[in-house]
Amino acid sequence: MPPELTALLIAAGAWVLLHLVVAASPLRWAIAGRIGEPGFQAMFSLLSLAGLVGLVWTYRGAAAVGVNFDLWVPSRAMLWAPILVMPVAWLLFIGSVSAPNPTTVGMEKVLQQAEPARGILRITRHPMLWAFVLWAGTHALANGDAASLVLFAAVAIPAMNGMFSIDRKRARRDPEGWRRYADVTSIVPFAAIAAGRNRLDLREIGVGRLVGALLATAAVIAVHPYLIGVSALPF
């Protein structure tokens, strides 16, 4: 295995372990108990920044010509997947940051509202993490090379695990408030709506967020060749 790809695997493994072990296991509470919650958040933020820099840096080396190699040849459908799915991912992301979300750090008081799950939260209680999963999954399909698979798996695995980890943390801090919230929401998109525990309200999502998602997708397509070095278009 090329040393550049080995370095990427190490960086990706460190990133995943940081989120699965340090942030999403009993170790988290042990550390926070010793240094306090603000101290833990500061430490985790610094480690995350260092891990992200390492992940991007090693990916650039592993993706170089002569080092990287294909695992599969993307089909036409795979090439179209990011273009078709990213507007949905952007809508989930924009919806998650433009409305009160009790799964966000510092927003736990939203659980005390009469109707804490509104807008995009009616679809899933973890819209931002689903945005990361959709981004990573579709881009892994459309690339098909070893370096990209490692990078996008390193993003998707902590995001998926984070949905369950955040649920456990919120349930521990506010059992009753979280029970009320979980009763009307779901991890899986549209599951609560399909079960009759919530309803889809497009007015709460709003035309502005939909337009924002489309504009964000168009902007990324426009700058993709300059930032990434390849066109985002499948033709």
What does this structure look like?
The protein is an all-alpha fold and 235 residues long. 69% of the residues lie in helices and 0% in strands. Helix 1 runs parallel beside helix 6 and helix 2 crosses helix 3. The protein is globular and about 55 Å long. The mean pLDDT is 92.
Assign an overall shape. Answer: globular
Mean pLDDT equals 92
* Helical percentage: 55-70%
Q: Please tell me how large the radius of gyration is.
A: 19 Å
Order of helices and strands: HHHHHHHHHH
Number of E-state strands: 0
Strand content: under 5%
Which structural category do the helix and sheet elements fall into? mainly alpha
**Low-confidence segments:** none
The largest sheet, given as strand count, sense and whether it forms a barrel, is:
none
Protein topology:
Blueprint: H1 3-22, H2 26-35, H3 37-62, H4 76-97, H5 127-143, H6 146-173, H7 175-183, H8 191-194, H9 202-205, H10 207-227
Helix pairs in contact: 1-3, 1-6, 2-3, 4-5, 4-10, 5-6, 6-7
